[in-house]
Amino acid sequence: MASTIMNYLGFGNRPAGVESASPVRALPSSWYTSQEMYELERRAIFSRKWMLITHQIRLAQPGDWLKFDVAGYEFILSRDRKGDIHAFHNVCRHRAFPVVEGQQGTSKIFACKYHGWSYGLDGKLAKAPKYDELEDFDKSRNGLFKIHVHVDTNGFIWVNLDGREKPEVAWQDDFAGIDMQERFKQYNFDDYVFDHTYHMEGAYNWKILADNFNECYHCPTTHPDVPTLADIQTHEVDTARAWITHKSSLTEEQEKNGLGISSTYYFPNVSLSVLPHFMMLQRFLPTGPTRSSMQYQIFRNKNSSEDDFQLINQMYRRIVGEDKVLCELAQKNLNARIFVNGELHPRLEKGPLYFQKLAREVVRAHYERERAAKKEIWPARQELPDSDSAVTSREDEELCSGLACQTSQAVLAW
């Protein structure tokens, strides 16, 4: 098993670069099929990296809340009475029952239906029935598990699930300046209003969706609509920190029809496409090593006509449907264990290569940390308090870890 994990991570081989005059080998298919790799990504990526989630316009009024799920981490975004936006795991601090069961709503408090514990819109514990009978119960230490929130210049909401008081990765480390792109100056983000969401479930790894999005090498053979949006021949990508920007030239007719598109991919799993009449937030959400959900949040310019909006809205629906077919059929062959990887074009597939480079770096770094610690490291996980009351809990946890993780610990000690 040790050699298997080492092969997944590519140790012993020179990491694939992006800038090259020769074809570059892609990540191996095992990274797209392995349950162990998926769990490692949950720890290394989705537990500790900043993720773009939605726009604050969806939390327009105090009390508004939305529920999201990323790689099995279910959480809530809410706006409190002061107008501040908060995020916390959808887990009651008492017995782990979900605090909300719907997808969205407006509430004065969050009340757990299991035992009646209730929380404010900021996640602080408001009431724990009968617990006033107990000594040394600290309400301030029993609020909902907080999640770090960042609202950028344009009103987009980001979260980081790192459970520490201060996340290891600061938003500025990965994304400083990304909300101040020069091309964003042509849009007034205050003019966009939320229109609708939709999603498509499929049998594909989340990274195959990212690979597909970040190149247009496949556009001429798959997407007859794309030339309406942009000039395929001039398509290129730029990379920096944790993002990939897509650019292409516009014809006079395209510019006249409001088809000037600004498209950005934000590692790990979200893209934003902004046009004068239309805006789409596309999120690639893994539910397992070979299953994911493509989820779309659609916004419209409140000053645009229905025809202008629908021209782009319907076009994108066709394009993403075509992409779904590509990804499912490619994943099917990856699952067959025949194909290991292919050679990617360093210019035409610069986007996928850069995405894979980012994934490789963060996964390897976390894996090395776990090897040094000789245990799995889950950044989003609850940390027990350093108090006498938690001594038995820590002993119980260590016992269970010793039983359940003997195999993985042997691998980490390799």
From TrEMBL:
Pathway: Amine and polyamine biosynthesis; betaine biosynthesis via choline pathway; betaine aldehyde from choline (monooxygenase route): step 1/1. GO terms for molecular function: 2 iron, 2 sulfur cluster binding; choline monooxygenase activity; iron ion binding. GO terms for biological process: glycine betaine biosynthetic process from choline. Gene3D superfamilies: Naphthalene 1,2-dioxygenase Alpha Subunit, Chain A, domain 1 (3.90.380.10), Rieske [2Fe-2S] iron-sulphur domain (2.102.10.10). Its EC number is 1.14.15.7. Belongs to the choline monooxygenase family. This is Choline monooxygenase, chloroplastic.
